[in-house]
Amino acid sequence: MTIHPSTHEAQAERVAETSIGELIGNISNDLSHLFRQEVELAKAELQQEASKAGKAAGMLGAAAFAGYLAVVLLSFAAVFGLANVMDTGWAALIVAAVWAIAGAALFVTGRNRLKTVDPVPHRTVDTLKEDARWLKNPHG
Questions:
Q1: What residue intervals traverse the membrane (predicted)?
Q2: Interior CA angle at 15 toward 9 and 20, to 5°?
Q3: pLDDT at 135 over 80
Q4: What is the C-alpha separation between 69 and 96, in angstroms, rounded?
């Protein structure tokens, strides 16, 4: 049984088309997988930054609470100071001053931590740049 040249060429063409189709399919699957991995990395980085922002916001909330207490205690101190010229009023004033110092310390600490929050997912950006370089020059 002999294979005619035209039949042999047709089979070779089908094999070449199948291989190209498979390659395109493989590339498509690989790119989809890579994209999903990049999205997962971005999510993880954003969650980490959101956690830092939440902690800093908690400290700022604590500073606001301490400030509120300072205002309340300073108000009581002023009342007691006027009503009782020395003893109770001055004691309340000292307590209020301590709360004011604590509030200031919490505020400064929270503000400084909030400054360290970075919303850019740097690792994801770096890997996307690397992927783009690879797509432009897969052999280099």
A1: 60-83, 89-108
A2: 125
A3: no
A4: 7
- The single-letter code of the amino acid at 106 is L
Q: Is 29 left (phi over 0), alpha (psi -120 to 50) or beta?
A: alpha
CB atoms within 10 A of CB 85: 10
Can you read off the two tokens belonging to residue 66? 């301490």
* Amino acid at position 20, single letter: I
Q: Exposed, middle or buried by CB within 10 Å (0-12, 13-18, 19+), for 7?
A: exposed
How confident is the model over 42-85, as pLDDT tens digits?
A: 888 888 888 888 889 999 999 999 988 888 877 777 667 767 66
Place of tokens 């590339």: 27
The rounded radius of gyration (Å) of the Cα atoms in the chain is: 34
Separation between Cα atoms, residue 117 and residue 55, nearest integer Å: 10
CA distance linking residue 91 with residue 83, whole number of Å:
13
C-alpha 36/C-alpha 61 separation (Å) is: 37
Helix H or strand E encompassing 89: helix 87-115
Task: At 55, list the tokens.
Answer: 């902690």
